[in-house]
Amino acid sequence: MVSSPSPLPVIPAEVDHLVVGAGFGGIGAAIKLDEAGERDWLVVEKDDDVGGTWRANTYPGAACDVPSQLYSFSFAPHREWSMSFSPQPEIEAYIQRVAREAGILDRFRFGTRMESAAWDEDALRWRVRLSRAGVAYDVSARTLITGSGGLSEPRLPDIDGIDSFGGAIFHSARWEHSVDLTGKRVAVIGTGASAIQIIPELQKVAGRLDVHQRTAPYVIPRNDRTYSRLERTALRRLPGLGRAYRTGIYWGRELYVPAFAKQPRLAWPAVQMAKLNREKAIKDPDLLRKVTPTFQLGCKRVLISSTYYPALASPNVDLVTDRISAITPTGIVTADATGARTEREVDVIVVATGFQTTEQPIADHITGRDGVNLGDLWRKEGMASYKGTTTRGFPNLFQLVGANTTLGHSSMVFMIESQLAYVVDAIRTMRAHRYAAVEPRQDAQDAWNDDLQRRLAKSVWNTGGCSSWYLDAHGRNTVVWPRSTFAFRRELARWDPTAYDLVAG
What we know:
Helix 1 runs parallel beside helix 12 and helix 12 (412-433) runs parallel beside helix 15. It is built from 15 helices and 20 strands. The protein has helices spanning 24-35, 53-56, 88-102, 195-205, 229-237, 239-254, 256-261, 268-281, 285-290, 308-312, 374-381, 412-433, 442-457, 460-463, 485-491; strands spanning 14-20, 41-45, 108-110, 112-120, 125-132, 135-146, 168-171, 185-189, 208-212, 219-220, 303-304, 317-320, 323-327, 331-335, 341-345, 348-351, 366-367, 397-399, 435-440, 500-504. Strands 1, 2, 3, 4, 5, 6, 17 and 18 form an eight-stranded mixed β-sheet that branches. Strands 7-16-8-9-12 form a five-stranded parallel β-sheet, with helices on one face. It has two domains: 14-153 and 356-504, FAD/NAD(P)-binding domain (3-Layer(bba) Sandwich); 162-217 and 256-351, 3-Layer(bba) Sandwich (FAD/NAD(P)-binding domain), CATH 3.50.50.60.
């Protein structure tokens, strides 16, 4: 007798709070809602387990570029890191453990995608369409909390002929582990944060590796190390030691803020570290010239690696700086400054061109008051919210890792925790005062963003002489937080109802 498959967990037709995404943001929201006595919530996740970015990015060499001790929830510190910079499998395992030990997974629905969410002005609720295993579900929610983040949807390059390539081609965030790269001719497009982790690993196995660089990044030494058995034992048994590590790392990272936000000259020590990192590994003058940045440190994300430059200097690696003009069924065509074209035949192409950070694709699925689509609004006017969390015209919508919350120096987990405190306090206040809907006033949102843009106008992110993924199509920096992380935490420590239009219910 063949047993029938177990039924999928029920998706309720109505909840108080619907959370989208099961990475750090979604898991943190679930835990903090529970702690606040808000038990009627549901988390939906398109993938089949928790982890978010750290489940999706499984490329060779994947690891965090924020020190391990700072890259965990303060309310659930991890004491079992093996290295000072944690590798992807350990971060994913940590996220899974936190969710499991919190006892919250019964209200998670995996393999479930949010297709659309529309604000119902009459009911003062969100009407959300979900899909799971080909079946549509309609859910009504009092609040909608998005935790999909800014690194969820890969950005593919717009290259003529990219669909014609006859070999394997995939994005770094959608790694094809079934493709054997041993002895192959491999090309990597991009030299960003993911690429510089991938390239040293591919150099070890590829027959030939072409690295296509548009702009040379600043790369400072990683200085990673494996914790000794004694040190791991001490971190596990002495919670105060872990807190001391975390505090020291936190304040060390905050020292970058003045250089990025106000005085680029203060970055001179880091500039010298990057210079020594290059010159230690690369002796060929032509290659050294190609990898030397031509903009101010911090304008683009500062990268960390002690193996990237040695990989570029290896005999089986070519750094290609000519512009890519097309992709053919057999390779990549580049054009030099004179327009002369060259085709380099390859077997595999790895696309490491980042994510859709200034657009946040989930916005295309959210429609607020008067039928205004959030994605359309942000494309027209630029991504802008109040305190990176709430947006005018979209009542009861709370976005984690929203506009101008990304960091260039420290841990996004710290920022997420700051937002969670704000969101939970808003929900607690809504219940206590019987507010059915809350929405930031336009003047409050405008004042918040005007202040951000004034600060950013003087920062290295806007004046450093580069073109980066921090800037949108209007040339506005809608991604980076231009102040200290403790300033962000202070601003979001309590929900501020005076900045909101409040509807009783």
